[in-house]
Design brief:
alpha+beta; three-stranded antiparallel β-sheet; 7 helices; about 50% helix; elongated
Amino acid sequence: MPSLNHIQNYQERYMWLLLCGYIFINNTINATSNIMEAQRESSLSFSWWEPFVWEYSSAVGTLSVLPAIVWLLKTFPFNWQRIYSSVLRYFLASVLFSLAHVFIMVMLRKLIYFAQDRYYDFGVLWFELIYEYRKDLWGFIFLIFVIKAYNYIISQLCGEAAPILEGEEPTTPQYDRLLVKKLGKEFIVKVNEVDWLESSGNYVNLHIGARIYPLRATLTQLSAQLAPQGFCRIHRSYAVRLDAIDSITSLPSGDSEIQLHTGKDLSLSRRYKEQFKAQLKL
């Protein structure tokens, strides 16, 4: 069984594995149920392979659109303070999700039926789109629930960080220590133990060796607050503690590659190169 640190380092891959496994198992059950229910009536009105084409094409359509849902949750998390705009945004996203799912599903079915010298008839377009949207809406909500629940469980298992402020909070606070909550316990992490920062939607992942702790903040905000502790923004998605750097390699593209003492490689983009050199005092 993989360790908790391994799951944490590859949590997105495990999430995809979980969703792919669930969708294909569920659709396999649906396909075999179609065949068994038809056999109750003593004869099949379709070929045995057709229910699998129907269900698996739907599964491929769903999985093809799934990255867009993950992007939506990271980029535009549901905001309860602006509930009406959030509901409207997610409603429009559900419509686009359904249209993309149906398009991919129908195209796959038509291709497979054509390969079998058969013709696939989707039916009356407006009626079938409404029919599919009714199902896709609940599928859309279910996928969001699963992704959010998975991320919550991972955060509880692996811990979530919050800054420790002493006395009155200054206008631009500087953090020396972080309070990490994990499985009902609390412990202290020093900021100078953090190797690099990674943007992840409304969170910034703090990488400390093989461990990762999410902290609710933006990378722009946090990298500025941690600059006095030797952190520097190197990419739109990364910031690094300068003392954690082992080597810097220039690339033909004009970007550079930073290798940390842990062996981790990070990209230094041209946009942040001058800022990086100034802070590094090269």
